[in-house]
């Protein structure tokens, strides 16, 4: 169950793009809530369709048992009962989702290291922008190298577990920071947008 937490990661990247967002005080909270709402809705609908749409008489057991019996491949096996190319469609969706997650992770990692370079928490070269494209190219290249090395050094399950633990620490830090800032700022911060 702990590894499923990774399916809800990603919305925090919106806050990491704060320097590049118009009216961040208003738009960041809205974007986070809207993105979470969309993701949760899609996941719930997906689960209802795949579990509720399988005919127990056709598969010889309850749908949840059928899907659970295949582990990570349960949704792919269930998709075969819906469409002739159902498994291929689910795999293609997973591939596109993985590419989107990779893009978002690279974006977030490069923006965080860029901000740290700009604030001298990392060497200043991380805070440099490309002259033509105005993107943090050193941070992007270094982040990509680290990701490639990690991806080639560990299996996917180990990377997912490590990422989940790191995200839990990140979220804990963010929550502690929010509570601390709220106590320090008192009425200066509005809690809604």
Automatic annotation (TrEMBL):
Q: Has UniProt tagged this entry with the keyword Endoplasmic reticulum?
A: no
Q: Which UniProt keywords apply?
A: Cell membrane, Membrane, Transmembrane, Transmembrane helix
Pfam entry (one)? AA_permease_2
Q: Determine if Transcription is one of this entry's keywords.
A: no
* Residues making up the signal peptide according to the UniProt record: none
| Compartments in which it is found | Cell membrane
Q: Which GO terms describe its molecular function?
A: transmembrane transporter activity
List the record's Gene Ontology CC terms alphabetically: plasma membrane
Give the transmembrane ranges: 31-54, 81-114, 135-154, 160-181
What's its membrane topology?
Multi-pass membrane protein
InterPro entries recorded: AA/rel_permease1, APC_superfamily
Name the predominant localization: membrane
Instruction: Please state what the protein is called.
Output: Cationic amino acid transporter
- Annotated organism of origin: uncultured marine thaumarchaeote SAT1000_06_B02
Provide the taxonomic classification. Answer: Archaea, Nitrososphaerota, environmental samples
